[in-house]
Amino acid sequence: MQLAVWRLVGAPLPRDLPAARALLARAAAIGHVDAALMQVALTANGSGAAAPDWPAALALLRVAAAGDPVAAAQLALVEAMALDDAGRPARAPFGELLSDAPRVVRFRGFLSAAECAHVAGVAAPLLAPARVIDPASGRWVTHPVRTADDAAIGPANEDLVIRAINARIAAASGTDIAAGEPLTVLRYRPGQQYRAHVDTIAGAANQRVMTMLVYLNAGYRGGETHFPAPGLTVVPAPGDALLFRNTLPDGRPDPLSRHAGQPVLAGAKWLATRWIRAAPFDPWALSG
């Protein structure tokens, strides 16, 4: 298992995803529970293999669920979803148009309460002070524009529940699941906010063309999502999702997509974000 992790992270050994997959399979075969769950995730998203394989991942999860309550809970959530044989939603989610410029669509009840809790639970141990991409260097840095804690659920942690949710986001947005960045969870506590900004990346060859926000909880005040240009303010409701375009038809950033996460006044706001690129990209370039 340790060798597999080193091969996934790329330190102290070079990153080698096929080798990591083989090591995880060996560790799972001798009873390492975490290796079995990671093997499921990588099988589903195709890391280190020719292509994603949902049926094989589901079969592995069923084996793991026989002796592991964590795997059993994941399997129960997946089996409660209406999915096709590839793990995609049986029907595309339906949304309501809130704005034409920028295009903003709300999907009510996009996630169930159990799915929201699962997303937050996966991200919670990974939370760290949030960062933004510095336009000058292209690196992730802390910045006062964004005060929160966040965690990207990278490929090694993309269990079948998260994978199915990412497929649902792809269906709602009409995009390829491979074009989405890792699902990122943010926690805003009192006084924290995300000041007005655009989600596009200056000079990016593979631009963030859309953003999906999913509100995960209740029990807080403030935290509205505000779009200044159309004068649109969306009050979060648990399980609801908000999809908006970040670019114009010619691919240039749309200044009207500027938006803000208003300060949280009381409690803690949990939010999941998936930035969707114009074309598929390698998620291992952003997360381990």
TrEMBL record:
Domain Fe2OG dioxygenase: 178-278
Domain of life: Bacteria
Record's keyword terms, sorted: Dioxygenase, Iron, Metal-binding, Oxidoreductase, Vitamin C
Protein name listed in UniProt: Proline hydroxylase
InterPro entries reported in the protein's UniProt record: Oxoglu/Fe-dep_dioxygenase_dom, P4HA-like, Pro_4_hyd_alph, Pro_4_hyd_alph_FE2OG_OXY
Pfam families for the chain: 2OG-FeII_Oxy_3 (PF13640)
GO molecular function, one term: procollagen-proline 4-dioxygenase activity
Cofactor(s) the protein requires to work: L-ascorbate
